[in-house]
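Appendix B. Chain record.
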Amino acid sequence: MNQTDAIKEMVKQKYSEIALQDKATNQASCCGAGGCSTEVYNIMSDDYSDLTGYNPDADLGLGCGLPTQFAKIRKGDFVIDLGSGAGNDCFVARSEAGETGKVIGIDFTPAMIEKARINAEKLGYNNVEFRLGDIEKIPVTANVADVVVSNCVLNLVPDKNAVFQEIFRVLKPGGHFSISDVVLVGKLPEALQRDAEMYAGCVAGAIQKHVYLELIALNGFVNCIIQKEKLISIPDDILQKYLDTDTLQSWKSGQSGIYSITVYAEKPIQKVCEPGNGCC
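Structure tokens predicted for this chain:
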């Protein structure tokens, strides 16, 4: 098994376990990487409870932002949620898209798909669908989505460039995405970077903020803006598992940091070049 496949298998196994954990356990960790902090509070995710469509059964406390709040979803829109988990963002998106819209959630963890489908059935939604699949190869045809959202998922994917290529493919010309994710500013301590639990907890899989934004531009998106940004403060009792005292103090006193950002960008509207219309 190569390194990429090993990372995917580790993330899948971890998130299969997370599907069975309660929200409090997930929120006391870094995106559900384990109840490793004595300081039980929400490290990364924002509060969904005031958003229309919020369903507590679908909220596992795994996000790092509120992408659906910023996604400019309109009635009748076709929305795709990448890494849909138990369905939280899908149900919020469905409240925005309405009964005439359609929402598809993609997740590669069978336990999450099962949990999301149960939640959708309880709510009686017939225009919310959950598909098992890898977001590096989104199981949706090209040029169909009005909006793509994702919440704290791309950082877990080894090939982030492939995901942005796929987002571009599935969006209609003129469509857009709003994605919340974890990025780095400065150098992450090596012990955090290599640890598997912290990878499944969103941190070690994160890349530099400027590289993340460059990938968006390189894949053809335009009008890219950061809709929200916040510094993530990981408690000392988590960091002490990975860093010695000197490294911990250096990390805390330096200019480096772990951030949650929500990024918006659009797929440009492309003219169809036909003989005789003067564009060829």
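Further analysis of this model is presented in Appendix C.
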